[in-house]
Amino acid sequence: MTPGDPGPADTDPGASGDDGGASTPLPTLLTDGGLGDSGPAGVPAGDCSAASQLVYVVSRENDLYSLRPDVVTLTHIGSLSCPASSGAFPFSMAVDRSGTAWILYTDGNLFNVSTKDASCRRTSFLPNQAGFSLFGMGFASNGAGASTDTLYVSENVNGHGLGTIDTQTLAITAIGPYTTPLAGQKAELTGNGDGLLYGFFLTTPAQVAQIGASGAIGTTAPLASVSVGTDWAFSFWGGDFYLYTGNSTDPSQTGSAITRYRPSDGSVAVVSSSVGFFIEGAGVSTCAPTTPPPPPK
């Protein structure tokens, strides 16, 4: 999709379900997402490296890790030295197909970070555009199997809803507020190579929802067992969603938990009760698998 295209296609709202170890599946996952150029669902384009198919997470302590979420294998890449304001720390993250992480800090500045060595450079992004001060981020491809994608943002202070960042000009374009039943709510975002965009909404209970054009909310899945806390992040990988949650103000907590929501059967499972640090952002490129891969040898 070129900058200015409307975003993921609208989907009819689906049923919500209660959670207590299980939740109603998102039936539109891995089906038509309607962003444009069609291609074979679940098959990344040929420009994808092995590294671009992993999840990346960034900690409150400015450390970058790669993650294979199905086996919870974390690898420390390096410590960030981004020239953010004193006291600022990472707020959210997205990763593009080249393996570059886009990391927003709490001072509103946006940085590009290498997922190879954690080297960091400031971008020319101007904070507080279009009423978007702090926001969640996620790339979604411009069609199933497409090799181009769009960076979506979700405004997380005043609930303005969905927008995009042009990765060339770094201009934010506001798309519009989310529709009922999540109007005015805040979200972290993730997308995939099937051209679908999803939000982890900071409601009570927390919800995962498909997001369509103009911020239209499609199928939702309440996850009553997930406590958002003060630190949250979100990623899609291999047909599942991973929610990273923790409360860094609670001295009894040693780090973020990782919870897997599997829309194919509605199951919810804690795959790690604590990773030993607090995750502030998670990013995954549209090269990541959209169906479960074989386990690593």
Number of domains: 1
Q: Which CATH architecture would you pick?
A: 6 Propeller
| Strand fraction | 35-45%
Query: For this structure, what is the CATH homologous superfamily?
Result: TolB, C-terminal domain
Which strand order do you get reading across the main beta sheet?
Answer: 3-2-1-20
Number of helices: 0
Q: Percentage of helical residues? A: under 10%
Q: Residue-averaged pLDDT, rounded? A: 86
Question: Based on DSSP secondary structure assignment, what is the total number of beta strands?
Answer: 20
Distance from first to last alpha carbon: 37 Å
Please tell me what the overall shape is: globular
Tell me about the largest β-sheet: 4 strands, antiparallel
General description of the model:
The chain is mostly beta strands. It has no helices and 20 strands. The chain has a four-stranded antiparallel β-sheet with strand order 3-2-1-20, with no helix packed on it. Strands 4-5-6-7 form a four-stranded antiparallel β-sheet, with no helix packed on it. A hairpin with a 5-residue loop joins strand 6 and strand 7. The N terminus is likely disordered.
